[in-house]
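[Help] Beginner question about ligand-bound structures

Sorry if this is basic. My supervisor gave me a protein sequence and a SMILES string for zinc ion and asked me to "get the holo structure". I don't really know what that means in practice or what format the answer should be in. Inputs are pasted below exactly as I got them.
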Amino acid sequence: MNTQRKKVLFFLLLLTSHFPFVYADAVPGGIARVLIDTDERPRAFYKDKLVLILGQAGNWEAVVGIDLAAEAGTHKLKIETPASSYYLNFEVQGKKYESQHITIKDKRKVNPGNLDMQRIARDQRDILEAKSSWTEQRQPSLELQLPLAGRLSSPFGLRRFFNNQARKPHSGIDIAAAAGTAIVAAGSGVVIATGNYFFNGNTVFIDHGQGMLSMYCHMQDFSIEVGDQLEQGEIIGWVGQTGRVTGPHLHFSVLLNQTMVDPALFLTLPGS
Ligand SMILES: [Zn+2]
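Answer (accepted):
No worries, everyone starts somewhere. Holo just means with the ligand present. The predicted complex, written as structure tokens, is below.
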């Protein structure tokens, strides 16, 4: 690396060092942090979805969620200010995730029937609506807490096979714990949806602000309602085994710009 590039890199490090902690990892399922040098607060769009912006005048930062299915290479972020509109490029590196084979006894949860498919379509509409929630005024903290203490039984990104059939990759982390264990809000925010879904079971969505959401699945029961304002660490319900599961656990997902990214990027996991 030449001296000029070293200088630029050092300057970038200086610029980024006072932003709240999050491990930038521009890979599929990861996060890109893109600096935006404008005075007025910009809006940023990635694949037509609004993106979380942190910082202040002259020193903004877009925190971009990258889809698990994203291709490695150059990606574009659209920047809009009252005066202009332009693109910034960022690089996404490739990442290979492990495979996981799971045996599900309830075959309907792997090959649903016609009525199940109608319900799944309804579920997906509800889930899509929750995922597209946007609360402009709330500035989220990127530092989340683990929603319960327990064994990390399945990491993010695993390429999954249920009864030897390929299904969607694992879009969150699984934390195994006894049924009835309390689950807390990973960060402060507002409850935007609760539901009972075919695959996800009893599910809660919390909006932390500007498209940063967290999702909690397979719960036994809830202690909250839609519209509740939560502080980080407040109890939202209890571990169960509703939906497509092999045992009691919490499935925990984090979303940025409607995209599920690795929750570990926001957490200090035990032993890490
Ligand atoms: Zn899971």
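A couple of things worth pointing out: The chain has two helices and 20 strands. Residues 6-21 have pLDDT under 50 and may be disordered. Feel free to follow up in the thread.
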